[in-house]
Amino acid sequence: VSKTPASEWEQPAHSPALSGDAAWLAYQLDIPGASWIFVVNPTNPDTSNFFVGSNPSIDEVGSLIAHEYDTGAYGTVRVYERSTGQSSEVALDTSGNPPITQCDHPIISADSRYVAFHCYDPMTSHGAFDQVYVRDLQEQTTKLASVGPSGQPANAPAIPSSMSYDGSKLIIESAASNLGQDSGGVTQVFVVPREFWKDGDP
Hints:
The chain has 1 helix and 16 strands. It has one helix spanning 5-9; strands at residues 13-18, 25-31, 34-41, 44-52, 54-58, 64-70, 75-81, 86-89, 103-108, 114-119, 131-136, 141-144, 158-163, 169-174, 188-193, 198-199. The radius of gyration is 17 Å and the shape is globular.
């Protein structure tokens, strides 16, 4: 990209995310008062969408962009649909209600179906640690994903790092000792298969 809207705004661009087909580039631009996400065609930077948000994650064909959004009270996770220019909430429980807590670190699967995200979790039923959840955009359900082979939630804070194309495997960073091996209190990388995910709302 020889020129992006960032150069016209005279602000630095960062947090880039490229669609799997390399047709769309999303990046964050911070201007006074708000953070914006621009989505451009690298071969034609004048073709772009932009919206308020931060930390973008883009699917295979650039149709959906998961991102963080500051509500003013706390951060949440939304998905922006490029064709309609509309955003919808992703950090929801299975009943469709947003959690009253900070949610961030979105990761969307390349096939556009799943969005993983992290929430600060005060709920004792999940061990009172930050956990990772996955929203199924097709089924409109939410699963607790920071779960080990024993079925127990991570016993230390966990954040999502990446996801396989079809969302069948999720990469999580955590110092938890119950996600497959004892981390010794040091942050490790864990592969959590979808069959480990369990019902559990943020």
